[in-house]
Description:
This protein is an alpha+beta fold. It is 23% helix and 36% strand. The chain has an eight-stranded mixed β-sheet, sandwiched between helices. The longest helix has 14 residues, at 109-122. The radius of gyration is 16 Å and the shape is globular. Keywords: Acyltransferase, Transferase. One of its GO terms (molecular function) is acyltransferase activity, transferring groups other than amino-acyl groups. Residues 25-175 form the N-acetyltransferase domain. InterPro entries: Acyl_CoA_acyltransferase, GNAT_dom, N-term/lysine_N-AcTrnsfr. This is N-alpha-acetyltransferase 50.
Amino acid sequence: MTPPAINMSSSTTTTTLKNNAAFRMSLGDITPNNVGQLKRLNVVLFPVAYAPSFYKEILEVGEFAKIIYFNDVCVGGVCCRKETVAGSATQNLYIATLGVLAPYRRLGLGSKLLNHILETATEASTTPKVSKIYLHVQFGNEEALEFYKKHGFEVVEKCENYYPQFEVKDAYKLEKVLVASN
């Protein structure tokens, strides 16, 4: 299947697929009024139960947390955590979650979420500057590995027993360096 052409410059995009079916995708802010949608998505998308403190922090990261709508239906989201870098004027960004419901994958929705994070992280107005973005991918999740590699992330470490509560315990740490840290 040829991927759809997507205009990443706007928050709402109308896209036409190979079969001429059109759909709208748009990014939305995470607010106290819709954080429940994000919670429900995360229950379906991830095997981890996130604590209430996770969602409280998400409400405070601004552009680094978004939900994505497909024809006005919430189908995915991304949540990041800002981390200060000791002795540096920069910060790191950790992608805690990025997921799209299975029936809506391969439509460019995950790329739209990730590209928003990458663009926001490299904007001149972002203070402090983001030096790198990183995340963990569970061993065996080849689809996620390829997705992030396609977007310029590199595997930098194998983390043994990163997920001790799961059958597949190991993970890869992936990162993308944006600016050299001081």
